[in-house]
Amino acid sequence: MKHALFSLYYLFIVGVWFVGALAGASTVGHFSDGRAILLMIWMACIYWLPLMIAFHRNTQNAQGVGLVNLLSGWTGIGWLVAFVMAYFGRRY
Fold first, then answer.
1. How far is CA 8 from the centre of its chain?
2. How far apart are CA 58 and CA 89, in angstroms?
3. pLDDT digit string (tens) for 13-58?
4. I need a surface site. Which of 41, 77, 84, 89 has the fewest CB within 10 A?
5. How many CB atoms lie within 10 A of CB 81?
6. What is the DSSP string of 27-56?
7. Three-state secondary-structure class, residue 59
8. Rounded Cα–Cα distance for residues 31 and 62 (Å)
């Protein structure tokens, strides 16, 4: 499970360039249905990035990171708190 999340983490880093290329190829201000779906999937994965990092680093507070991200990640500040918790959390 941990290796799958780690692979997804790198896939979504590459997704930045992929979605950017798709957005640049579309007409100004309009996405086709397929491009919009790819963008939404990529944005959802960025939202859960702190949890993926916490699982990859095998931190002790991975469940806490997920809870903070779920409840307050939408504020931006909550996402940053979850990201810091994931990045600087104690490992097992």
1. 9
2. 9
3. 666 666 666 665 555 556 666 777 777 888 888 899 999 899 888 9
4. 77
5. 17
6. PTT---HHHHHHHHHHHHHHHTHHHHHHHH
7. strand
8. 35
